[in-house]
Amino acid sequence: MSKKLPRAIPPNAMHAPEPRLAAALADVADEPEVMRRATAAATKAAEPAATPADERRAEAVKLVKRFSLWGGVASMVPAPFFDIAAITAVQIQMLRRLSAIYDVPFSENRGKAIVAGLAGAMIPASSGIGAASLMKGLPILGTAVSTVVMPTLAAGATYAIGMAFIQHFISGGTLLDFNPPDYHEFIKQHTARAGVRPA
């Protein structure tokens, strides 16, 4: 007597969920991603939007930091006084670029006069730059000392001048109405912040 055996159940049949259940499981599987996106959107919405003025200032500060480094590099010109001319050229180029960021007319002659006028606000930084430049004329020791000291002084002075102009341009000023004595204290503070002690 032969018994009729039941038909074999396909192996996947026991594991295949019902279509509605499969859709629910897919939603649950995607839930962490959905939550992550929702959290990111909520965080972004809660942050205050950057205004054009904020973006412009951030661009200007980034520019000043970059030119400060170039000021330090320019100070390494080995010939006395040529290094000071190179630093001044870097600072004037920085003023030109800051003027462009703030849509302020630029005059190279006025820029040179302002940089010269600001030198008095950076004593002992400005006198230190002059002394370090003169030391380059001394063999070996003078060159070694000036190579260590001068980049820091030049970078600090360039940073302070740049920050003064950002402040001036933000307040609506131009190169024509920039008065160096008005910014002497401001420049001393920023020179110190850049690592150069004020007078």
Shape assignment: elongated
Largest sheet: none
State the secondary-structure class. Answer: mainly alpha
On the 0 to 100 scale, the average pLDDT is 73
Intertermini distance: 116 Å
Low-confidence segments: 123-128
Contiguous helical run count: 7
Provide a short characterization of the protein structure.
The protein is built from seven helices and no strands.
Based on the model shown, name its key terms.
199 residues, mainly alpha, 7 helices, elongated
Note the topology.
Elements: H1 19-46, H2 52-74, H3 82-101, H4 108-118, H5 125-135, H6 141-170, H7 184-193
Helix pairs in contact: 2-3, 2-6, 3-4, 3-6, 5-6, 6-7
What features would you describe in this structure?
- There is one protein chain.
- The protein is mainly alpha-helical and 199 residues long.
- The chain has one domain (52-193).
- It has helices at 19-46, 52-74, 82-101, 108-118, 125-135, 141-170, 184-193.
- The protein starts with 18 loop residues before the first helix and ends in a 6-residue tail after the last helix.
- Mean pLDDT is 73; it is low at 123-128.
